[in-house]
Amino acid sequence: MRKIVCALLFCFLIPMTHGIAQKWTMVWHDEFDGNLINAQNWTFDTGTKGDGWGNNELEFYTSRPENSTVANGNLMIIARKENYLKSHYTSARLKTHGLQRWTYGKIEARIKLPFRQGLWPAFWLLGDTIDFTGFPYCGEVDIMEYVNDDPTLHGTMHWANNDDLSSYGGTTTIKKLNDYHIYSIEWDSASIKWFVDGKKYWEGSIADNIHQTDAFHRPFYILLNMAVGGGWPGDPDASTNLPDTMYVDYVRVYKMSPGK
User: Mean pLDDT of all residues in the chain?
Assistant: First the structure.
């Protein structure tokens, strides 16, 4: 959930190539069956953090069912235009922090998104050390980000290099914006690879902690949210008809099968 700064060029593998098929075993998942958010899997960030979560976002994140609920096999994250505790918008930001965390693996979600001015949906990871190291030292992996009605999918990694924020990421263009798509990464000790609907579009090296990427060899947790406004997408306008919903069909985590 940070604005992309694709300025750091170093020994990254070439994007738009296809790797050798891997064997994966699912180790955790949430299929969003039933009608309740599973409290063993998800907790909430709430409020505005005073500065719009570091991005000048406009929403107040809540844990109310008006902003996040489970129905018809989907987690629904709902952005609303309403006056709520001095904010003019509400939404939800769910996370597995303190409940589930992983180092390496395949992490994916099947998601359908709204595309409107001022909306900023994301599926992403933060380093589990964030409470005592802070950002960017904890590391961040943005598996999926879009802004506004732009069909450009962004996948990015952020970390601290010599105490400065470093960012590296790639993009691809999505057709059929309002359909479900599967967003995923494959992450091991050598690299992080980004995929959409099974097609790789970007890859970054973390081998041997290149450029102080040691944060990416420690545990991370998952976040799902839909921000409203912020320095990157800008504010909603008259075309932004709210409420609108981010639908998450499932989230799944896999580990490489033994011996593969």
Answer: 93
- Which pLDDT value is given to residue 131? 96
Enter the DSSP assignment of 130: H
Beta strands in the chain (DSSP E): 24-30, 43-45, 59-61, 68-71, 74-84, 87-91, 93-95, 105-112, 119-127, 140-145, 152-161, 164-173, 181-187, 191-196, 199-205, 220-228, 244-256
The catalytic residue positions are: 140, 145
pTM of the shown model: 0.93
User: How remote is the C-alpha of 160 from its chain's centroid?
Assistant: 19
CA distance to 12, 35, 51, 101, 104, per residue, from 183 (Å): 21, 24, 29, 18, 16
Q: Is a pLDDT exceeding 70 seen at residue 80?
A: yes
Q: What is the pLDDT of residues 81-100, one digit of tens each?
A: 999 999 999 999 999 999 99
Going by C-alpha positions, the residue among 248, 250, 255 that lies closest to residue 30 is 250
